[in-house]
Structures are given as structure tokens and as C-alpha cells.
Amino acid sequence: MLAWERKVIDDRVAPATEAAGNVVSWYLEFIDNRDLTKGIRDFNGSPRFSTGYTPLRNRPGILIETHMLKPYRLRVIGTYDFLRFTLEEVNRDPESLLAAGRQAEEKTLADGPTYDPARRFPLDYELTEKVRPYQLKAVEYHTEASDVSGAPRVIFGTRALDLTVPMYDDFRVKTAVAPPLFYIVPPQWKDVIGVLQAHGLTLQTTKEQATIDVESYRFLNVKWAPGPFEGRFMPSFKIETVRERRSFPAGSVIVPLAQEWAKVAINLLEPEAPDSLVRWGFFNATFEQKEYGEDYVAEKLAREMLTSNPQLRVEFEKKLASDPSFAANPRARLQFFYQRSPYWDKQMNLYQVGRIVSTVRLPL
């Protein structure tokens, strides 16, 4: 699909739009808005953006933005021209677009029925330090001190200014995963299941309890943003892989990856994906401690554990000596023992979605 976009959009539509009298550019994010000569960092749109989502559905996606400083008439004409030339190209050779879509879908479907731990599906990307020269069509500008913000402000003129600036647009895979055969979602996560349904994913439902071997994750170093984003509190975290035997109740939802929308499912259900349902706060209850021990009970428990476990005593004393904030926090000191006791909630910070990576008999 990317090859089709480069051949049709980059090589034909964009030049035709420019030839019609428009200035066309990639989406630009300047390293320093006050000094354009420092260059441009490309923007990798995650699936929350249209151009990050359409590839997951094996379709091309183009986002047209016209600059707010341009006259409204030119913005309308530029958008019209780009759409006109795009439709002309598609009409001239519709089969190439259909073939690109079929090829992408066939590749997705071919990968789904098998699990290969060596196969890596990219979830997130990062820029490299590789740079190339870019011809920027700017306008003259200068900066002056602002008595309002206290920082330099940019003042744009009207005279055209052609600049050659560094462009950073080379990406490498930052995070990847080996896709499973299926995901299994317990039925109580109704909002999660609702999102999967809204995306049109093929889903199946278990008719009775299933006790199966799964892979999953435990969340570590969970932290919270200082405020909501788009109405949701979004956690950050690290993960470690967990392999265990779990029981999933009747009504659990199976998400097979042998389907054309498999890449959508992976990006929603793999926690490390930048727009996963975990990152968007759909599993925040997982991070809540529901049970606790009263101090007078925890005191007795701690003393019993120290007496019966000399190694634990060494660990406790080492933490007291190395962590002053811990040593000064009575609640944290008691929590140290509670977390290592048989009464600690082992479901806390445990991802409730299972990854099925081997062939199993499911009660469907």
C-alpha cells in the first residue's frame, strides 16, 4: 500500500497539484519555530490519526491540511486541486489501487493462522539521526523580543524565502511484538468489547468456561499523567511477560488474528501500542489496589514474616538503609510485608487479556 501511495500521490498527484499553481509540502514540524534553519522533524502519526489508522485496515490514507495564514480562496482551491488529481489518477488506473489493497489483505490473512515468536509486528517508531537536505519554501521572517510573553516572537513578512534545511524523516522500529493466534477478553470488560465491535472486528464468544495456557503482561512502574487528555486518564508503564494457566468464564470474547482487520486488533490489545486500549484508560481498574490490611494486623504479620524468613529480614533492612523516604513512611514499611504475603492481590497490575499462542480447543 505504501508503494502505491508513493507512486501515485508522491510522483503524480503532488507534482500535478503544484503545476496547477499550489505549493505542496509534507506536514512540517519545525525543530525551532523561531529559527527555521534548524530544520524539520517528520511526524509519525499513530492510529489515533487518520493516516495512522487507514494502513491498519490495508487502505491508503492522505490528510490534506492548508495553512491558516494562506487566503481562504487559495486554501479551497488547493484542496480541490489535490482531490481532483487524486480522483483522476484513481480513475485512470483503478486496478492498481484495488490490487494494492488485495495484496495487503492477503498478507494480513496469511500471517494470522500461525504463531511465530520470531516474527515482529511493529507497534511504534522513532526517528533516527539520519538527515537529508530539504528545500523549504518559506517567507521572510524575523524575531523580536515580546513584552507580552517575555520570549522572542516571530514576525512573518510577505517576500518569498527559499531555504535548504535539514529534514529528519527516517524512522526505525521502536517497539514490536510477535502477534498471537488469538486474544481472549473476559466478558466483564464490556467497554473494551464494545470498542472491538465498533471497529468491525470478527469476534467469537465462548459458550462455557475455558481453562487454557496464555501469555499476558504484568504492568510495572505505573505512572499517571497530571491531568486528563480527551477526557481520559492515561497511564504510562513498563511491562513484563507472564505465562500462566488461566480460567476465562463463559461469554469471554475471542479475537482471531486470521482476519483482514488483524492489525487493528493488535494495536488495540497490545498494551505497548501507542494508542492501545490500556493507554487510553480502558483498563485503569487493573491498577487499583482493592484490598488492604489494617495496621494492627499488618504489624503482627510483618513480625511473623521477619521471624520465619531471615532472607526477608535482610531485604527489609537493606531497603531501610538505602531508601530514606521508605524508612520514614510507616505505611510503606507495612506495605512491604503485605505485598510479599499470601494475602496480596496478585491480580493487581495484571493484564486481563490473554494471548493464545498455541492451538487450543475453545468452547465456541
Written account of the structure:
The chain folds into 3 domains: 2-111 and 129-169, no CATH class; 175-288 and 348-356, no CATH class; 295-339, no CATH class. 33% of the residues lie in helices and 24% in strands. It contains 10 helices and 11 strands. It has a 4-stranded antiparallel sheet with strand order 7-10-6-11, with helices on one face. A hairpin with a 6-residue loop joins strand 3 (132-145) and strand 4.
Summarize the structure.
The protein has 364 residues and is an alpha+beta fold.
Secondary structure topology:
Elements: H1 2-19, E1 40-41, H2 50-53, H3 72-92, H4 94-111, E2 121-127, E3 132-145, E4 152-168, E5 171-177, E6 182-185, H5 190-198, E7 204-205, E8 210-224, E9 235-248, E10 253-256, H6 262-269, H7 295-308, H8 310-322, H9 324-327, H10 330-339, E11 354-356
Helix pairs in contact: 1-3, 3-4, 7-8, 7-10
